[in-house]
Amino acid sequence: MEDRTPTPEHHRDYDTIQTVGVLGAGSWGTALAKVLADKGYRVRLWVHESDLVQDINTRHENTLYLPGFTLPPTLTATHSIPEALDGCDMILSVSPSHVLRQVISQAAPYIPVGVPIVSASKGIENESLMLVSEILQDVLPIRCHPYLAYLSGPSFAKEVASEMATAVVIASYSHQLAVKIQHVFHAPFFRTYTSQDVIGVEVGGALKNVIAIAAGVAAGLGLGYNAMAAVITRGLNEIARLAVRLGANPLTLQGLSGMGDLVLTCTGSLSRNRTVGYKLGQGQTIEEILGEMREVAEGFHTSRAVHDLAARLGVDMPIATEVYNVLHRGKRAQEAMQDLLARQLKEEMSLYG
Fold it and tell me: What is the pLDDT of residue 351?
């Protein structure tokens, strides 16, 4: 996959960052906004739901997506994208992947020149099969491309908001930019690493949600720890296969945005994607499950894109394929697991299957 990012002519002095505009007030966007506000930055949080703005500004709490956590007074909410971005020194984009293009298109005219744009969204766009990095490069003017970075890794929003120990990775084609953003986000409980493998970090963050649904199915069916370990391990193999085909470094998938995020999302009770799979394994329909959920389970949307992208590239991804069949083709979860176990015997290690 070609890197279309131009070489930056300059970077702002990131030590002088004072105001951050955050696009997306779900649990993850709010938790990251809290991290920055607690560090002393002025944070303007763009909220899609207009009635939630008043709660955040008066009660200092995101009562819809992150209830129970007090937000600092330096964090203010707005329903206006231009207001959120006006005069900001950095932008944090945390919209769900299936609405990212729409939100960024609306924001593009208001992005100040030379500010870093950090994406914490994970997923693949169904229509174009683009990763988040490609969507941003497609939508944003070329002047913004040198300032793009991507935050990923094993990080439940509630644990971050509770200041529980967390480690993430900041990826950018510009090492200088990644290091600067690393220092912006780093906190005593929030450790940050850098990477220049944008594709690997993006693929790991997107596909772990699909594999987590399969892990949830295994748990819901009562298949035990052996099955869970198999799903995680073979799922990582599938993720690495697709990532390498797209040009990623396979070592990236052994890191925080690969194995780290995969283990967390497959085993943690706070995982929305694992919960979707668990309820499928318990016999609920996908329509019933999604109807009960307040926030997006990214794996539902990403499963279709992964299925189509793997078919386009000729990458063998049996677990992801069965997740797609269960979510979008009406296949029973029990039957999907049986079909995975009955597949033709193969050699274990292959990045090009």
Answer: 56
Domain boundaries, the chain: 14-196, 203-341
Nearest to 13 by CA among 180, 193, 187: 180
Q: Active site residue: 208, 279, 331, 346, which one?
A: 208
Q: Class for domain 14-196, per CATH? A: alpha beta
Tokens of 12: 């702002």
Residue 297: pLDDT over 50 = yes
Is residue 170 predicted with pLDDT exceeding 60?
Answer: yes
- Second CATH level (architecture) for the domain 203-341: Orthogonal Bundle (1.10)
Angle, CA 138 vertex, CA 4 and CA 30 arms, to 5°:
110
| Rounded Cα distance, 25 and 23, in Å | 7
Mean pLDDT of 180-197: 97
Give the Cα separation of 335 and 346 in Å (integer): 21
Is pTM beyond 0.90? Reply is yes
Query: Residue 208 catalytic?
Result: yes
pLDDT of 1 higher than 50: no
Pairing of β 148-152 and β 166-171: antiparallel
